[in-house]
Backbone:
């Protein structure tokens, strides 16, 4: 069981991309922001890509408008020569930009107005993950070209399962390269007679159910998209390849609850299977106390004694609070230990729970200190 | 309809609502639509098929049936019902058409899912309604308004035809007096903000809010005066030291300071929770609170929550 040294990670000029991932609600975004800030104040030129930050966290980074472009975060100490930019992902806009960048204006207009494109770019489950990857690819290219940044910290979309992030591009690609779409495209490319009777029947039913316009829309969209990208899968694979390179470090964030730890295990196993570089696991928001010797049981018993004898209700109340706390402390540590024992080869770092949400740079610096304590 | 941000316990609350209705002797259908078998996990039964199956009985003679709606199966069922497709449906499925249509057209997907709820609320058996109530474990708050705005979702997709008519009928039901949307939240910033946003979006669609369910509430052992002192870390150390000694606990200076600091953290959190509660109350909706169950959620806990909901 080894300790995860995050200062060594962010100080290493070979670390160019850090991806924070984990189940929803474990503090991924805060961890990404805190690490980005710390790296910047230690001299790195950092851009943080957040997906869906809490309002107060967004404000602390100066992210008041969602314009899909990195903006400098004010009040970051530049004494070590670093800087911090931050941005919030706008998935539809990112998708639109991809279309605009790769198509003739005429064709782009056609795609952007297509109802299927609208559905796909705004509400398909997986588009957000895919666009986060796309944006990461863009930032990486820009960083290589301009030297604006030497470290990209990217947060992954909130999802029930941390694995969605790795699976979404493939899902989107297989949808757009699926058999049915190939069949739909066939008439646009070759003689109609090549289509089998089964497909003809399928088309006729679809026409009846959805109306003829719908299938035409799908066909135009797919045809336009297909020539545009020359294979969606290939593009997805390129971005995923970026994540396999040694300059990338995955950081799995997990709160010490069973669900989150289970997700973290799945994710760690998956990263290994995909040969993706896992730097370690942040065990986040672990409840701690400075009075571990006063157990929950003794604390409660003492509170009850005081209540029975009607002495100092205030002391009884603080003892009850401590008893609650100790129950959490014991539970959190038990679960965190179990996780560490089950994953001996994975470096971990434990971050204590704070009473208040982080809402300014001071709070983020504090998290940064805790991450590297 | 029960919605809530991920992690707020919306599936648990939906199940508890279904149970509380069953305890009043009703036949209830509990439906999930997100394909993650949350109900099976909650009730500790094998994954639910696309078949209505009884998963719990209320002591008052009612029943809870559960159904995991799957958009693809619903589309095949729909095609069969209206077009008597039979084998042709299978052919469609085989070329990937069903998968494709339900994936690439999220609007259609939602119409199929809400359509199943619509069908279940109207279904007759032996001359009476098959179910007295249908409880839907709906998509999360971030997606609930578009999910229920079925009319709009298919507007671009199907301008005429059976899907259009179906969407109109579903929308009619959703806006009528039989439908209520309950939003589950915790007293934390993000879930509360999403709840406020969702209420605004839903009301703009003429949909009716039932209640806001504030989940996992912990009561503070400190009264308001003590909380006010605790926040400033000004709880009387001497009194606490004396109290501890009289309860037979050996007192070090560090212990009292730790307890005071822990009380401060607690008071800060209570303060944040109250701010969030005020934001919920400002909506002017019915608010129901459910306690945090320290031992986690099992069937017994669901019955406890069901009782709280009825109270």
Residues:
């Amino acid at each position: 069981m080894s300790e995860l040294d995050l200062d060594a990670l962010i100080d290493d000029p070979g670390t160019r991309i850090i991806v924070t991932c984990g189940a929803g609600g474990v503090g991924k975004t805060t961890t990404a922001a805190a690490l980005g800030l710390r790296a910047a104040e230690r001299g790195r030129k950092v851009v943080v890509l957040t997906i869906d930050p809490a309002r107060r966290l967004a404000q602390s980074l100066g992210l008041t408008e969602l314009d899909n472009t990195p903006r400098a975060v004010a009040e970051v100490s530049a004494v070590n020569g670093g800087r911090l930019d931050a941005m919030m992902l706008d998935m539809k806009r990112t998708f639109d930009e991809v279309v605009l960048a790769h198509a003739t204006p005429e064709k782009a207009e056609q795609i952007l107005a297509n109802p299927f494109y609208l559905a796909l770019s705004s509400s398909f489950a997986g588009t957000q993950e895919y666009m986060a990857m796309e944006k990461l690819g863009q930032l990486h290219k820009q960083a290589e070209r301009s030297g604006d940044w030497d470290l990209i910290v990217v947060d992954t979309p909130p999802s029930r399962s941390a694995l969605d992030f790795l699976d979404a591009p493939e899902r989107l690609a297989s949808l757009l390269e699926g058999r049915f779409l190939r069949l739909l495209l066939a008439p646009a490319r070759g003689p109609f007679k090549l289509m089998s009777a089964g497909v003809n029947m399928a088309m006729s039913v679809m026409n009846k159910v959805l109306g003829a316009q719908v299938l035409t829309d799908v066909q135009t969209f797919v045809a336009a998209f297909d020539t545009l990208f020359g294979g969606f899968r290939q593009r997805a694979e390129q971005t995923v390849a970026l994540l396999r390179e040694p300059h990338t470090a995955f950081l799995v964030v997990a709160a010490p609850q069973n669900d989150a730890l289970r997700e973290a295990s799945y994710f760690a196993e998956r990263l290994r299977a995909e040969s993706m570089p896992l730097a370690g696991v942040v065990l986040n928001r672990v409840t701690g106390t400075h009075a571990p010797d006063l157990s929950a049981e003794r604390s409660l018993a003492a509170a009850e004694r005081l209540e029975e004898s009607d002495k100092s209700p205030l002391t009884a109340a603080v003892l009850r609070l401590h008893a609650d706390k100790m129950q959490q402390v014991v539970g959190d540590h038990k679960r965190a230990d179990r996780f560490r024992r089950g994953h001996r080869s994975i470096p971990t770092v434990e971050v204590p729970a704070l009473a208040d949400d982080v809402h300014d740079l001071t709070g983020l610096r504090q998290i940064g200190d805790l991450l590297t304590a | 309809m029960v919605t809530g941000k991920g992690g707020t316990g919306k599936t648990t609350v939906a199940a508890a609502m279904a149970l509380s209705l069953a305890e009043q002797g009703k036949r209830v259908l509990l439906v999930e639509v997100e394909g993650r078998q949350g109900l099976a996990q909650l009730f500790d039964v094998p994954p639910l098929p696309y078949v209505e199956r009884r998963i719990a009985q209320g002591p008052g003679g009612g029943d809870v049936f559960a159904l995991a709606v799957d958009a693809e199966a619903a589309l095949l069922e729909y095609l069969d019902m209206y077009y008597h497709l039979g084998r042709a449906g299978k052919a469609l499925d085989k070329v990937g058409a069903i998968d494709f249509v339900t994936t690439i057209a999220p609007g259609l997907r939602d119409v199929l899912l809400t359509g199943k709820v619509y069908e279940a609320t109207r279904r007759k058996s032996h001359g009476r309604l098959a179910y007295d109530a249908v409880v839907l474990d709906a998509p999360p708050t971030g997606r609930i308004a578009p999910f229920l705005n079925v009319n709009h979702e298919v507007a671009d997709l199907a301008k005429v035809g059976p899907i259009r008519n179906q969407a109109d009928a579903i929308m009619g039901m959703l806006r009528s007096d039989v439908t209520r949307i309950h939003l589950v939240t915790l007293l934390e910033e993000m879930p509360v903000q999403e709840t406020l946003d969702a209420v605004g979006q839903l009301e703009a669609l003429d949909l009716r809010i039932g209640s806001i369910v504030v989940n996992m509430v912990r009561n503070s052992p400190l009264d308001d005066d003590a909380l006010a002192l605790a926040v400033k870390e000004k709880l009387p150390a001497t009194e606490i030291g004396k109290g501890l000694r009289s309860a037979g606990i050996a007192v070090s200076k560090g212990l009292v300071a730790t307890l005071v600091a822990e009380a401060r953290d607690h008071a800060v959190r209570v303060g944040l929770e109250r701010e969030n509660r005020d934001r919920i109350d400002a909506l002017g909706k019915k608010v129901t609170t459910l306690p945090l169950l320290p031992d986690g959620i099992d069937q017994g806990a669901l019955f406890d929550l069901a009782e709280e909901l009825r109270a």
Observations:
- Chain A touches chain B through 61 residues (CB under 8 Å).
- Chain A is about 60% helix and 10% strand.
